Amino acid sequence: MEELKSVDELCAESDSEILTYEEVTQYLSKTGRKRPLVLCGPEGVGCLELRQRLAEFDKDKFASAVPRKV
Q1: 27-67 confidence digits (pLDDT tens)
Q2: Gap between the Cα atoms of 25 and 28, Å rounded
Q3: Is residue 70 in a domain?
Q4: Residue 58 is part of which domain span?
Q5: In the prediction, which pLDDT does 64 show?
Q6: Residue 21, in any domain of the structure
Q7: What pLDDT is recorded for position 31?
Q8: What does the longest C-alpha to C-alpha distance in the chain come to?
Q9: Do the Cβ atoms of 4 and 10 come closer than 8 Å?
Q10: CA-CA distance, 65 to 67, in Å (whole number)?
Q11: What is the C-alpha to C-alpha distance for residues 50 and 47, in angstroms, rounded to an integer?
């Protein structure tokens, strides 16, 4: 079983900086175009179910992406 380490211990062992917070701002599109909403998580957490419920809740606001060949 892997030993759990604190953030301080991980930072001391790592050569790279670990970012724990990044400030974000709200972006409002002026064109009215739909923007992607990315749902990700480990298998079994319900991303597919959430996507289906969002689409059923407001079909004008949420839609599935249409894949296209490149």
Answers
A1: 777 777 777 888 888 888 888 888 888 888 988 888 887 77
A2: 10
A3: no
A4: 34-65
A5: 80
A6: no
A7: 77
A8: 52
A9: no
A10: 6
A11: 5
